[in-house]
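Supplementary Methods, section 5.1.

A reviewer requested that the exact input to the structure prediction be made available. We therefore reproduce it here, unchanged from the version used in the analyses.
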Amino acid sequence: MTDLLYRSEPAATRCEAQLIAWGTDEKGAWLATDRTPFYPQGGGQMSDRCY
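The structure derived from this sequence is encoded token-by-token as follows.
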């Protein structure tokens, strides 16, 4: 389960995290970490994006 820092630390813009999974799918490469400051897409609010 990923710790969603935007809930407990909304001002966080970075954090240290452990890589817990990775792979590829029809959209390309992906990875999962044990914690993240990024806000997910959906719910009418703008999401964070990485390029």
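The chain has a mean pLDDT of 85. These observations are discussed further in the main text.
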